[in-house]
Amino acid sequence: xxxxxxxxxxxxxxxxxxxxxxxxxxxxxxxxAKNVANAAGDHWCYTEDxxxxxxxxxxCQTGKQQSPIDFTQKNTIQQNNQVRxxxxxxxxxxxxxxxxxxxxxxxxxxxxxxxxxxLVMDGDYFKGSYRFSQLHFxxxxxxxxxxxxxVDGNGYVAELHLVHYSNDYKSLKExxxxxxxxxxxxxxxxxxxxxxxxxxxxxxxxxxSKVKRQEDNLVSVQIPLNVSALLPNDLSLxxxxxxxxxxxxxxxxxxxxxxxxxxxSRAQWKAFKDSADSGGRSIIDNYRPxxxxxxxxxxxxxxxxxxxxxxxxxxDRNPPLADALYDTAQKSVNSKSSSSDDKNSxxxxxxxxxxxxxxxxxxxIFLSIFLQVLITTVLKCR
Length: 382
Ligand SMILES: [Zn+2]
Fold this sequence. Notes:
This protein has 382 residues and is α/β, with parallel strands linked by helices. 29% of the residues lie in helices and 22% in strands. Strands 2, 3, 4, 5, 6, 7, 9, 10, 11, 12, 13, 14, 15 and 16 form a 14-stranded mixed β-sheet that branches. A two-stranded parallel sheet has the order 1-8.
């Protein structure tokens, strides 16, 4: 039955083609998509078709722990134990001056030229202390959008990011470049519209008038500013591992986002909306949409204490800070079962079985591609 044998070989070849073609198409599409993103180069934006968030390249496309995210009942693990956020004495001091910049994407405030400061914070599960570097804002054109993080799909009019880098590093740049997922700690604060001005925001709003148009230079202003006054009273918070929310979206951030929104008046909001980039276009809706939380743990703490960090040399009578939340908590969550993540998985053997299926599928895909290449080569050689 030689002819039948040949037919079988052709059928097998056709089947392999059928099986591998989708993967080849997928790979080519992926490469093309990446090239489109790369073609955008360093230029990125929020609201224009050719440079908005869907075109951002690098880790923004390929990352697995991207930010911002949507905090939902389903993706959040509630922790009822009390945790502390500690700020050093200088963090609560009133700064006599600050620097402000309109970089075309946001309004950024820092305390010194070199994006560092003496403001330090730490807390349970941070594993080390973090130095304040800069703060900046994201805002919307409408009261129900503008924040980067959202809660059950609902956005806020604006979100403030207080950016800190780990004291293990000498600079923000070094911390961003290390690929350490705890390199940065960013505190996120939601704003909601209020009939009254937020006095803590007034110094920044006053200074925005000096940087209405994008400028490379920082402008130094002699206006008193209390960074810690920008925090909400209730520090109930979400915490998760994520990324920078702007290119190159490095996955180096332990995020802390507070549930309680702080006020912003319409006049204060308008000051942000009146800023413009170098081309005179309004800076507006400068937020990235929520990213996937698949395979990520998001924790919510509703008992958070704000404390002062002990000064150097001061005896710390407090119990030691807890660290490695994600390692210990994740272990306990995993050991309990993965039922909250995967409703189909009813016991350990099921999840073990799906691992076997996944391995078999991956092996099959690789084998198919290998055979396809082999068959193509053999046909060419003939
Ligand atoms: Zn930000």
